[in-house]
Amino acid sequence: MRRTYTFYPGCTLHSTGREYGRSTAAVCAALGIELFELPDWNCCGASSAHSLDAELAAALPTRNVLLAQEAGRDIAIACAACYGRLAAAHARLRDDASFRDRMERVVGRRFIGDVRPRSLLEMIVGDGGTLEIAGRVRRPLAGLRPVSYYGCLLLRPPQTAGLWDDTEHPKKLDGLLRALGANPCAWSYATDCCGASMTLNRSDIVYTLVGRLLAGARDAGANCIVTACPLCQANLDTRQGRQERGMAIFYFTELLGLALGLDELRSEWGRHFTDPRPTLAEAGLL
Asked: 105-140 burial string, b = 16+ CB within 10 Å, else e?
C-alpha cells in the first residue's frame, strides 16, 4: 500500500542540500512513499527569524502548516530546523486560542487541525517499520560503523518535536542503520549542538563544537557520522580541522539509498566537502 504525504523541502533541499533532496526522493519512491511538494511554500524562518521579529518568526511556519491543510495529508519534513519550527507552530495553533486567532488573521487562513508535521526520519521508520526496510536491502552496509547524530533540533523541545523518540537517549536512527546491515556505535553526543546557527558569526565556537563531536565519534570507534539535518551535515562536513579530517558525514537517506541498491545516487557523493568514497571503499561498498 502506497503512503502519501505533503512534502516540505525547506530552503536547503533544492540548493546546498541537493544530495539530501535527491536521495529523499529516490528512497521514498523505492519504499512506495509518494511525496507531493507543498505548493507556494515559504522559508520557515529557521534559527534566525526569531531574533529579528517574533510575529514574523511565528507567521512563517504557521503559513506552511495552514497551506498544507488543503491536501489533508501529514507533512513530511526533511530538515530538523524546519521540522522543529513547523511542529512548534502546529502545537501553538492547536493549544493556544489567542495565538491561533492572531495567526489566522495574519496568514488569512483558518486552522482545521487535520494534518501534522512529521520528521522524515520518524515517518520512514515509524510508518513503514524497520522490518519492511530490512526486507528490501540489496547491499548490506556491514562494513560501516556509524554513529547516529540527531543534533539539537530534531528532538527539541520534547513537548513538540520530540514525541517520536527518547529525547535523552534516542534509538530510532540506530534501529534503521541496523536494519540496513550497519553496525552503529554507542556514543554520548547524539543530541549535542554542532553550532550551525553560529557558523557565520562565531566560527571559533563552531570549530570547537564540531571538533568535540568528531573526536567523540572517533573515540566510539566510528568511521562515519549519520544525520537527518542539512545544517548539521554541512557544519560537520565543512568544519573539520586538520586533526579530524576524513570523517565521512552522511545523510541517513544516502545510506538508505546505498543499501537499497539505488546506484543513481552515487553521483551525489562528490558534492560532499569531505569525500565519503574512501570510507565506502574501505568498507567494501563501492
From this structure: eebebebeeebebbbbbbbbbeeeebeebeebbebe
Beta bridge partners of 118: 76
Which CATH fold would you assign to the domain 133-282?
A: Rossmann fold (3.40.50)
Per domain, the residue ranges of the chain are: 3-120, 133-282
Measured CA to CA, the distance from residue 244 to residue 223 in angstroms comes to 12
Q: Which grid cell is 119? A: 520528521
Question: Over the stretch 90-144, which tens digit does the pLDDT of each residue have?
Answer: 999 999 999 999 999 999 999 999 899 999 999 999 887 899 999 999 999 999 9
H-state helical runs in the chain: 18-30, 54-68, 80-95, 97-107, 120-123, 130-134, 172-179, 203-219, 230-238, 252-259, 277-282
* β partners of residue 227: 149, 251
pTM of the model: 0.95
Q: Looking at domain 3-120, which CATH architecture does it have?
A: Up-down Bundle (1.20)
Angle of CA points 203, 205, 167, to nearest 5°:
115
CA 5 to CA 9: how far, in whole Å? 12
| CA 285 to each of CA 138, 189, 258, 262: distance values in angstroms, whole numbers, following the listed order | 12, 27, 8, 13
Residue 74: other Cβ atoms inside 10 A? 18
